[in-house]
Amino acid sequence: MENKDNLIQVDDLMFKPYLSQEQILAEVDRVAARINSELADKNPLFLCVLNGAFIFAADLFRRITIPDSEITFVRMKSYDGLSTTGTVRALSSIPEEVAGRTIVIVEDIVDSGYTLERMVRWLKELGAVDVRIAVLLNKPKARKVEGLHVDYCCLEIPNDFIVGYGLDYNEKGRNLPDIYVVNN
Fold first, then answer.
1. Which end of the chain, N or C, is less surrounded by CB atoms within 10 Å?
2. What CA–CA distance (Å, rounded) separates 58 from 159?
3. Pairwise CA distance, residues 117 & 94, whole Å
């Protein structure tokens, strides 16, 4: 990665600044406060979708004040390079018991909606009583799945390709503290 005039190079693409870490964390604070209020009497299991959501999940979970909260991780894959493959694969299983639980799926971004649709269906089949979705970024104009409800959203963005704060381009750029958008 290089930094030339505020541009970042990741692999073969150039990205320009889009959202600062401060802007992101202010939205994470807002979403965490809503979750704390709405799920205060539950024992929610936060299900972080790896790899992209791990930074968002860590920042969000540190702000959750519900004593009986738990977090676990699952690995899903639907992307290759810049676009979705349309096929969602679970690369790992959920290690915790979900039957009878309130589950909060923590995802970095929802665009096509394929991954989250499959996960919600999967969790309900496993007996979850309530499945909620918390996303860092929502791209409603990229949605290919109808009826997907996002319960907690930090920010809505246009259908641009972004990197940073856990989001990657070919597995690179996740470590950037800010979010960058592809520089066309």
1. C
2. 25
3. 16
Q: Report, as residue numbers or ranges, the catalytic residues.
A: 111
Residue 21, C-beta contacts closer than 8 angstroms, at least 6 positions apart: 165, 177, 178
* Whether the predicted pLDDT of 10 surpasses 90: yes
Tokens, residue 84:
């979705």
Report H helices in 53-183. Answer: 54-62, 114-125
Model pLDDT for residues 60-100, shown as the tens digit of each residue: 999 999 999 999 998 866 555 445 555 555 545 665 789 99
Architecture per CATH, domain 20-158, reads as: 3-Layer(aba) Sandwich (3.40)
Let me know the angle formed at the C-alpha of 65 by 63 and 71, rounded to the nearest 5 degrees. Answer: 75
Task: Sketch the domain layout of the chain as residue ranges.
Answer: 20-158
